[in-house]
């Protein structure tokens, strides 16, 4: 009996020690998800990532068939990973080395094509958005016939009601929205229920669960790739790529009109797409309001400074704000080396996922679009143990969109 009691006490002590150690170091893992040259695609570009409340992760990308440039015959492709709603427990915590199970290691299903080029056209700029009222996933994309021209384009929409397993036939929503270049990135759902998808110069939105779509007023800036997030006061923050820093505009009327744009010096940028999402809100039971932002930063840092690189798109970095984007005191590099576009999402357990472009550097040459890598990490990892989640009301809302 004493031996059994000692064994139980030792087991409990090990569990406490393991939990404490994990909080101190956080969790991080990564997987090469889309690799150029595989599945009959020369290049994968323009990542987009969402996670449903049921824990299904959907990773979207442009699949460029024959070369890496914009506007070549291009499909929108997707990979799914279902069953990720439970607490993330890495394999090394389980007994006897039997840690690699579907509960501890994400399982990705084979590649699917959601928009297929049939006549050489290019489907580009995938932007998914989830209607949290019923779980419907909408996927929007631009349609470019040949010859390709980089300009505002028709917008097509498909939807899924089964966690991305199947999709409807595309419909054209351009008559309601007008032509725009989408996102890219991810759309959001406001607290009011409105679905919002960012474009290069504005947002398009739906107030009737995706049946009809309209366009807001354009921002007075040079159109370019952007991302939008809802702040806790109900306003929208529109964040656009640029160099040497990002440009921001604010809407107080849910995207109908916008403030005069201003440059955010706390967000250096190599003139590249970036990811901006809501992480936590105090009015949803969390101790702090948090926003997350990711982009490659090295090309935007002054030459000669620590972390600078004259080749531009290097070192994808995640930043965090506690004051609704006024300052960004937390930053951590996800992967050193070539890196470009990215997209983030939040799991039901509060861990964070990011899908980002990366590759290899060869002297003065760098290939930042050789593959797209998925990484998952915790707040503990991002802050080196200085911050962690405490929620008094239940699981975090997946995708941080509602």
Characteristics of this structure?
mainly beta, disordered C terminus, Neuraminidase, 402 residues, seven-stranded antiparallel β-sheet, 41% strand
Number of helices: 3
**What is the top-level CATH class?**
Mainly Beta
Helical amount among residues, as a percent range? Answer: under 10%
What is the correct CATH architecture? 6 Propeller
Shape: globular
Uncertain residue segments = 4-22, 302-310, 397-402
Q: Please state how the strands of the largest beta sheet are arranged side by side.
A: 1-23-22-21-20-19-18
**How many domains make up the coordinates?**
1
- The chain-level mean pLDDT equals 88
Question: The biggest beta sheet, please?
Answer: 7 strands, antiparallel
What is the percentage of strand-forming residues? 35-45%
> Can you count the beta strands?
23
Radius of gyration: 21 Å
Distance between the termini: 53 Å
Looking at the structure, the CATH topology is Neuraminidase
Helix-strand string: HEEEEEEEEEHEEEEEEEEEEEEEEH
Helix-and-strand structural type: mainly beta
Structure write-up:
With 402 residues, this protein is mainly beta. The protein has one domain (29-400): Neuraminidase (6 Propeller). It is built from 3 helices and 23 strands. The chain has helices at 2-25, 174-177, 379-382; strands at 28-35, 43-51, 57-64, 74-81, 112-115, 122-131, 136-144, 154-160, 171-172, 188-189, 195-198, 203-206, 214-215, 226-230, 236-240, 245-251, 262-268, 275-280, 290-296, 314-321, 330-346, 352-362, 365-377. The strands form 5 sheets. A 7-stranded antiparallel sheet has the order 1-23-22-21-20-19-18. A 4-stranded antiparallel sheet has the order 2-3-4-5, with no helix packed on it. The chain has a 4-stranded antiparallel sheet with strand order 6-7-8-9. Strand 12 (203-206) and strand 13 (214-215) form a beta hairpin. The chain starts with a helix and ends in a 20-residue tail after the last helix. The model is unreliable at 4-22, 302-310 and 397-402 (pLDDT under 50).
């Amino acid at each position: 009996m004493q031996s059994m009691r000692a064994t139980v006490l030792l087991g409990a002590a090990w569990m406490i020690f393991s939990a404490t150690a994990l909080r101190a170091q956080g969790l991080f893992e990564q997987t090469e998800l889309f690799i150029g040259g595989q599945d009959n695609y020369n290049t994968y570009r323009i990542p987009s990532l969402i996670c449903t409340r049921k824990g299904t992760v959907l990773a979207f990308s442009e699949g460029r068939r024959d070369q890496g440039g914009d506007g070549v015959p291009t499909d929108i492709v997707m990979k799914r990973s279902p069953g990720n709603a439970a607490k993330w427990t890495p394999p090394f915590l389980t007994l006897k080395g039997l840690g690699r199970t579907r509960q501890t290691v994400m399982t990705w299903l084979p590649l699917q094509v959601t928009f297929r080029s049939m006549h050489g056209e290019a489907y580009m700029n995938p932007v998914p958005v989830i209607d949290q009222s019923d779980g419907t996933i909408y996927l929007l994309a631009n349609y470019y016939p040949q010859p390709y021209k980089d300009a505002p384009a028709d917008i097509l929409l498909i939807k899924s009601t089964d966690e991305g397993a199947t999709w409807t036939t595309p419909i054209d929503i351009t008559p309601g929205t007008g032509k725009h270049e989408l996102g890219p990135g991810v759309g959001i759902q406001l607290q009011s229920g409105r679905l919002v998808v960012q474009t290069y110069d504005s947002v398009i939105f739906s107030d009737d669960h995706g049946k009809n779509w309209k366009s807001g007023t354009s921002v007075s800036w040079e159109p370019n790739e952007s991302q939008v997030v809802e702040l806790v006061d109900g306003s929208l923050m529109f964040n656009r790529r640029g160099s040497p820093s990002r440009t921001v505009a604010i809407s107080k009327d849910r995207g109908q009109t916008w403030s005069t744009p201003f440059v955010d010096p706390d967000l250096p940028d190599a003139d590249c797409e970036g990811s901006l999402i809501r992480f936590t809100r105090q009015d949803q039971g969390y101790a702090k309001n948090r926003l997350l932002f990711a982009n490659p930063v090295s090309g935007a840092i002054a030459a000669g400074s620590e972390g600078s690189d004259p080749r531009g798109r290097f070192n994808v970095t995640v930043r965090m704000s506690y004051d609704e984007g006024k300052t960004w005191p937390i930053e951590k590099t996800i992967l050193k080396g070539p890196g470009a576009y990215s997209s983030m999402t939040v799991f039901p357990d509060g861990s964070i996922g990011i899908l980002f472009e990366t590759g290899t550097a060869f002297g003065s040459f760098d290939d930042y679009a050789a593959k797209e890598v998925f990484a998952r990490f915790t707040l503990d990892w991002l802050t080196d143990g200085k911050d962690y989640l405490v929620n008094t009301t239940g699981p975090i809302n997946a995708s941080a969109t509602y």
